[in-house]
Write a structure and sequence with these properties.
heterodimer, A: about 600 residues, alpha+beta, Porin, three-stranded antiparallel sheet, about 35% strand, B: 4 helices
Chain lengths: ~600, ~100
């Protein structure tokens, strides 16, 4: 029976008006009726079992047909319908649903347009109502179509199960082309003796003399390492790192009468440490096997010495390397680097890194119209199976200029440090085995050590242009001391020299390794009894917790080499010393600062 | 003053020499010449799968503390017996061996 929507409902549900003579009798008709209802039941079960997954026109049509057949072979045998609208509507639906199937036979009923009644035989005032009826052949075709559809659905389901979701595909590509890691260095340091001295680790700025037992928890490195390798021949690296935000800060007015304090002082901020692209295969197709692994790097990158030496030493999370106290580890520029290998075993005999860089490091604005050239060449006379294997002889040379704009060069100045050329040389003999390593390093420099380096940890207020809270006479003496530091360390013709010995030894069958670094640093060899000369020692023991995590406990010290004395003003003037206004003394008193000692507990987590 | 400085310098030189002597005397020197008979692999050369090595002779895999540091970066790399391993590889080898010997 058709409902108002034009769909058929099960017969008998809506007060059918029956007429005895209209009932279609006979065994054939009954069997056909049973068959049709059974078939309709199959269709409904089929439809139900697949729910709406088979949402195709064919399925809907089949369901419609099934219901149609059921309706017309119901118990009443006569369907009550409002013939004019519904019959045509019903026909219309049936023909639409039967369109894929040819209805080879039809059924004729009669309807009274005045009453809307439908009859099985003609009579006065009745008009024929032709209805299509599916023949057995049509039903067979339909079954065949349904089976085919069922098979297609099964295939589709199998395909859906085997299809890799898009997000999985994306993550797979991401994993193979992007590498993310991190690096954390932290410590707790306790200064039994404080002093003004070079920085022992970056981001650490202990106070000066008179603050013994100062201690702090520090984070000295927090890298986020991201490497992108969309193709094997190019790699991009981005590495943000923390830095201590110190410097001039100002509070801020807020509204008409209010204000808020600055929150910039002392924060650990993030800045870009490394940002470069690396061409991995520039020499791969040249047919020159010894250099086929060499690379070209463009961008903000490690300069040739420091990162290499940190890896050679292995304990950078505990202390800085010596030249790194003078020169930043990172510069924007371009470099070529790589091993040169020979022989059937591809042993490394040369490892080099040569580049041209800004004169300004990664945390400064480039101001020059010149550039800085740095080169490191490491020779392994017996061949190395890996980067530092066995005996190595390394030379590093750096030639650059102070970071000032060209128009500054013409301005007359008392001290020429900022305008002078800068040179750094390192000669290193090193031997590395699995369980120990030892290196001796000789350093030589020209204009490579300034008061800024000398007091990178902290220094007298006058060095930084600040006025100390001292009595006037003491303030004047500190100003004279600051001027002396500039005269001896920033006069544009200073020469540096340093001797270093560093290494480590793994205690067999334990997780412990002894390590140490000692050096003597002459800040300007042209000065007799230079009060700024210093020695350093680092002695400690490290514990390797696992492949990613190390701890260390160590003692570090900066020892000023000279004994205390007063520096003659007449001698200081040979280095362009200018006495501060009001300073009448013939000597600058107590120019040798006290030693600095600290005990540290360090941690490194590397992933 | 000069005498004191001389004494300081001698102390520094003595400490340096002492440290060098300690390190040199503390263990056998492993050189390439001594290990040349073993299979050698460059850092970037494809190495034998380390798992096969440990599976063959059932020896414990190298430990990070027994290896030299090659690179402190992402990933950390270690050199053990002439072969270079990442920290992930060493971890994997260690865990696999530990699981097999529980």
């Amino acid at each position: 029976m058709m409902n108002r929507s034009g769909w058929f409902e099960a017969a008998g549900g809506d007060q059918p008006r029956t007429h005895g003579g209209d009932v279609a009798g006979g065994e054939r008709t009954l069997r056909a009726s049973v068959r049709r209802r059974a078939f309709a039941g199959q269709i409904i079960r089929y439809f139900w079992s697949y729910r709406m997954k088979l949402s195709t026109g064919l399925t809907i049509a089949a369901a419609g047909l099934a219901l149609f057949l059921a309706a017309f072979n119901g118990t009443g045998g006569v369907a009550y319908a409002q013939a004019s609208p519904y019959a045509s509507g019903g026909m219309s639906v049936s023909s639409g649903g039967l369109s894929p199937i040819s209805a080879s036979s039809g059924m004729t009923l009669w309807t009274d347009p005045a009453t809307g009644e439908v009859f099985t035989r003609p009579g006065p005032g009745r008009t024929p109502l032709n209805l299509p009826v599916a023949s057995p052949q049509s039903q067979q075709d339909l079954m065949q179509k349904l089976q085919q559809q069922e098979q297609k659905t099964a295939e589709l389901e199998q395909q859906v199960q085997t299809i890799e979701p898009a997000w999985q595909d994306y993550l797979g590509s991401f994993k193979n082309k992007v590498s993310i890691g991190g690096q954390f260095w932290g410590d707790w340091s306790m200064y039994t003796h404080t002093s003004w001295a070079p920085q022992l680790l970056t981001q650490i700025n202990p106070p000066g003399p008179g603050n013994n037992l100062y201690n702090s928890f520090d984070i000295t490195r927090a890298y986020i390492n991201v490497f992108f390798n969309p193709t094997s021949d190019w790699t991009m690296r981005l590495t943000p790192n923390i830095y201590r935000t110190t410097g001039t800060t100002a509070n801020q007015g807020y509204g008409k009468t209010g204000g808020i304090g600055s929150d910039l002082q002392g924060n650990l901020g993030f800045r870009l440490k490394y940002g470069y692209v690396q061409w991995n295969t520039p020499f791969e197709n040249l047919g020159i096997d010894p250099i086929k692994k060499d690379v070209i790097v463009l961008g903000q990158q490690p300069q040739p010495l420091t990162a290499w030496e940190e890896d050679l030493y292995g304990y950078r999370f505990v202390n800085l390397t010596t030249w790194n106290m003078s020169i930043s580890s990172t510069f924007p520029g371009v470099s070529i680097q790589g091993p040169i290998t020979f022989g059937p075993e591809n042993l490394q005999y040369i490892d080099y890194n040569i580049g041209a860089f800004n004169n300004a490091s990664f945390h400064a604005l480039e101001q020059t119209n010149t550039k800085e050239v740095m080169a490191r060449v490491s020779l392994y006379p017996f061949g190395a199976r890996w980067r530092f294997d066995g005996l190595g002889l390394t030379t590093f040379y750096d030639y650059g200029y102070g970071n000032v704009t060209p128009d500054n060069l013409d301005i007359p100045s008392n001290l020429k440090g900022p305008n002078a050329r800068i040179e750094r040389l390192a000669e290193i003999v090193h031997y590395t085995a699995d369980n120990w390593g030892l290196a001796f390093e000789y350093d030589w420099g020209k204009n490579a050590w300034t008061p800024g380096n000398q007091y990178s940890g902290s220094g007298p207020a006058e060095i930084f242009g600040e006025t100390p809270s001292l009595p006037p006479a003491a303030t004047l003496n500190q100003e004279a001391f600051a001027n002396l530091a500039s005269a001896l360390l920033n006069n544009g013709r200073t020469t540096q020299q340093a001797f270093n010995l560093f290494g480590h030894y793994h205690i067999p069958d334990t997780k412990f390794t002894l390590f140490g670094w000692i050096n003597q640093f002459n800040t300007n060899t042209d000065v007799n009894n230079n009060p700024f000369d210093w020695q350093r020692y680092v002695v400690g023991i490290a514990y390797q917790y696992n492949e990613y995590l190390r701890f260390a406990i160590d003692e570090q010290a900066i020892l000023y080499y000279q004994n205390q004395y007063n520096f003659p003003v007449s001698y200081a003037k040979q280095f362009n010393f200018v006495a501060p206004k009001g300073f009448k003394g013939k000597t600058i008193p107590n120019v040798v600062l006290p030693d600095m000692h600290t005990t540290m507990v360090n941690i490194e987590y590397m992933f | 003053m000069d005498v004191q400085k001389h004494v300081r310098f001698r102390r520094f030189a003595g400490l340096t020499a002492g440290a060098a002597a300690l390190l040199l005397a503390s263990g056998p020197v492993t050189s390439y010449a001594q290990t040349a008979g073993n299979p050698t692999v460059m850092a970037s050369a494809p190495a034998d799968p380390p798992m096969k090595v440990s599976a063959r002779n059932d020896a414990p895999p190298p430990k990070a503390e027994d290896c030299a540091i090659v690179t402190v970066s992402t990933p950390m790399k270690y050199a053990c017996n002439g072969k270079v391993y990442t920290s992930y590889e060493l971890q994997h080898l260690r865990e696999k061996w530990e699981a097999a010997h529980k």
